[in-house]
């Protein structure tokens, strides 16, 4: 068991103590659940940070370990540490519930006292205040928790058993079932608002029916998997998840700030989103500290599935799944860009992460090579040459004009084609900055240009 | 991958096909959710049965394996197969939800149509019929699912990492947090009805406050652990769980049968219990078939935790936790009887399962021996001799009157002391018959004698 340094112990202890004080105060003073959520997220950060350090050796002992191929001395480090994040996160969400509902409990309880209503023996059977309580919110929390616990189970299974890619791909859909079931029995709206230019043909609303569930299942499959394939550099899985989480919180703020006309009809959904994202940000920051260059731990598929599913849950149950997709533009690009290799149109090597040049210590684009025995189909070769000309690839061409080598089809390799060899942390930072810029632009477009497509921006 | 035999394929396929037909019919005809639950449980049985066979090799490959010490040829068989049960169970519960709420959905939807109420664009934000829906039921399902998914996660961790006994013991309490949080925010009744003889002193009702949560946490810790320690013979973990589940369903029937005065105030809770138990019975039967003597697979701690938590969930959220405890009498006896060894008053060997006599092929009581270097404390020795005299132990005494050996303190060893060497399956059957008899007696006492302690049996 690796211990925390003295500085770490004091800092984490300090953070935890302050957060705990805030929490006690929030409970006593009947304060905003937002403060309680922040405090619990701080405690979750400190706890995750320490737990990752403490349990690393146990993970290695049980075979959850890997070597970092982009380092000169590739020592074995713990793998699948996202599991720790997921467990602390689930614990944090459960412990937040009493704070989230304290106000409602106080209200119904005091109402009962006002009426001088005495509890009778038979009330024991049915509970005291079921009818006035915001149960739909409560059900959302329950099913969100169930979905995230499920994706954690499936993540562990994926990290434990070697699963085939085509099985893994659909894992998140199973985990999303509780959420879809909730949506079906409780909410049930499968209509979408039609953009203005199409209203002439389709009317104001279109009922997508069963397709809407397919759409939600697709989002649940997409979010986790596209985080999983934008990977291979220290800190990039956690980093991109943090950027997305922070951008969603920023968008949520537009609906819940006191400066907005309150009560805004969507404020509840966005509060729900914030309450689920803050502890996620807490545990992810702790993981990032250990996973950032040079990484001391790997995050595992568990983390990617878990992070993606957190976004799918808040997007779907918070009713802003289209906005959510705007924040996934780099991931969507990476997915489409990867498609030729994922679907084996272009041969795909086992690993596509950038190549570590031990001499310079920098990362270079990794390549797939095509021998004369296994040549590329001529048509595909011509397309690759075209992509090379518009700087979307870098290919090597033999004397007779045959493509012998191409950089692998991932956004990380493409970035290295554009920006030249980079140190690992530099690459991660540049990608994250690009992602943040694209996300901010996406939000701007969503709120400014929405009026061109719809009659109202739902924010006003 | 081991395949199913032709007979198995046809039987399982037949069961699944019939159940699927029932399910489709239940959906179309708006039938009772009970039929849907039965059909889904049948499908869960068939699926679990096949999945255990198919995945056995994968489990062995990944190190989840063990040797059966009570067999002449102790080959390695898969361990932790309860995980398959838990996963299929969770899937079954989610897929049951639309059936459970179909009637309510139809009602609120048709009400909306009656009023000729057109869906407007802004309704998309808030959903269509949140106010008339039995959301408290829905929340219960969500949190029950969350609790059971959590206990599955912790069971996997326990089976994957070697955890210390004193850590393991409290695992279920963590998993139970979602359920306790639900109870806190939603139901909140912490009063208990006082038995008649004590009313003079305490009044009709006593508010246990925080202690009630401790009581519920204790039940969540107790149920899983006491199934975990009544173990060590093929089929006994699954067998005892099945007996308990069937007895609870029997008790539930007393409240929901049409012959009872309907609507009974507790009918909803007991229906909830039945809906959660039927798929449990389905997956457990499939596991029992593989785990019964001679066992082809082991069930793992995952199963014991999972089974115990299913009982804790239905008992607590169904509001019959005291009745539940009546069905755990053999386990409670085993726990108390084991206590001297669990708490190290009497030295406890690593394994306490009955000893296999390879010559006779029968099981005999296993023993703990006390050498002259590590003798038993004299007082403890005297107590053991006393217990031997009332046939609650069998001890060996040396010439100078020192206790040198005692049978281990488990109900299985005690049964062997009473009934002599038995074959493994015979021992399991006798224990299960005894458990069923004790449980039926417990239910009889609960419903017949309740009137002596309380003013009403809540069944009438």
Name the features.
9 strands; 2 domains; 460 residues; two-stranded antiparallel sheet; homodimer
Name the overall outline of chain A: globular
Classify the beta-strand content of chain A into a percent band: 5-15%
The structural domain count of chain A equals: 2
User: How many strand units of chain A?
Assistant: 9
Please outline the major beta sheet of chain A.
Answer: 3 strands, antiparallel
Ranges of chain A where pLDDT stays below 50 over 5 or more residues in a row are 113-131
The average pLDDT of chain A is 86
Whole-angstrom Rg of chain A: 25 Å
Could you tell me which chain pair has the largest interface and how many residues each side has? A-B, 65 and 65 residues
Distance between the termini of chain A: 54 Å
Order of helices and strands of chain A: HHEEHHHHHHEHEHHHHHHEEEHEEHHH
Structural class of chain A: mainly alpha
Number of helices of chain A: 19
Oligomer: homodimer
Question: In terms of topology, how is this protein built?
Answer:
Two copies of one chain form a homodimer.
Chain A: H1 6-28, H2 33-61, E1 65-67, E2 76-78, H3 82-114, H4 123-126, H5 135-160, H6 165-168, H7 171-175, H8 177-187, E3 191-193, H9 196-202, E4 205-207, H10 210-229, H11 236-256, H12 267-291, H13 300-317, H14 321-326, H15 329-342, E5 355-357, E6 362-364, E7 367-369, H16 378-389, E8 395-397, E9 403-407, H17 411-419, H18 424-448, H19 450-453
Antiparallel strand pairs in A: 1-2, 3-4, 5-6, 7-9, 8-9
């Amino acid at each position: 068991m690796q211990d925390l340094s003295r500085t770490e112990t004091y800092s984490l202890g300090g953070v935890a103590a302050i957060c705990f004080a805030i929490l006690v105060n929030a409970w006593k003073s009947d304060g905003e659940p937002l403060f309680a959520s922040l405090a619990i997220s701080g405690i979750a950060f400190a706890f995750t940070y320490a737990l990752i350090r403490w349990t690393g050796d146990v993970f290695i002992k049980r075979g959850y370990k890997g070597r970092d191929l982009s380092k000169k001395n590739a020592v074995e480090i713990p793998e699948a540490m996202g599991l720790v994040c997921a467990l602390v996160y689930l614990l944090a969400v459960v412990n937040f519930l009493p704070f989230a509902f304290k106000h409602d409990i106080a209200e119904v309880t005091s109402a009962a006292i006002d009426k001088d209503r005495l509890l009778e023996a038979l009330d024991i059977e049915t509970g005291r205040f079921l009818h006035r309580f915001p149960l739909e919110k409560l059900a959302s929390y329950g099913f969100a928790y169930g979905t995230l616990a499920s994706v954690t189970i499936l993540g562990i299974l994926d990290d434990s058993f070697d699963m085939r890619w085509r099985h893994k791909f659909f894992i998140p859909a199973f985990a999303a079932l509780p959420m879809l079931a909730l949506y079906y029995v409780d909410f049930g709206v499968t209509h979408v608002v039609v953009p203005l230019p199409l209203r002439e043909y389709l009317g104001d609303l279109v009922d997508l029916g069963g397709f809407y569930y397919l759409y939600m299942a697709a989002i649940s499959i997409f979010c986790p998997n596209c985080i999983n394939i934008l990977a291979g550099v220290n800190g990039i899985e956690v980093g991109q998840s943090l950027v997305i989480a922070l951008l969603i919180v920023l968008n949520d703020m537009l609906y819940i700030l006191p400066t907005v006309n309150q009560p805004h009809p969507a404020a509840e959904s966005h509060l729900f989103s914030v309450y689920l994202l803050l502890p996620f940000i807490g545990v992810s920051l702790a993981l990032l500290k250990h996973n950032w260059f040079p990484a001391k731990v790997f995050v595992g598929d568990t983390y990617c599935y878990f992070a993606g599913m957190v976004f799918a849950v808040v997007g779907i149950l918070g009713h802003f799944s289209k906005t959510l997709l705007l924040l996934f533009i780099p991931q969507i690009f990476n997915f489409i860009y990867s498609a030729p290799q994922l679907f084996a149109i272009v041969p795909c090597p086992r690993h596509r992460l950038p190549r570590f040049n031990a001499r310079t210590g920098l990362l270079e684009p990794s390549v797939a090579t095509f021998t004369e025995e296994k040549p590329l189909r001529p048509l595909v070769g011509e397309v690759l040459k075209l992509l090379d000309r518009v700087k979307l690839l870098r290919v090597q061409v033999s004397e007779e004009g045959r493509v012998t080598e191409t950089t692998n089809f991932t956004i990380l390799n493409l970035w290295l084609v554009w920006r030249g060899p980079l140190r690992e942390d530099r690459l991660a930072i540049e990608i994250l900055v690009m992602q943040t810029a694209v996300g901010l632009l996406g939000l701007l477009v969503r709120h400014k240009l929405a009026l061109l497509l719809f009659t109202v921006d739902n924010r006003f």
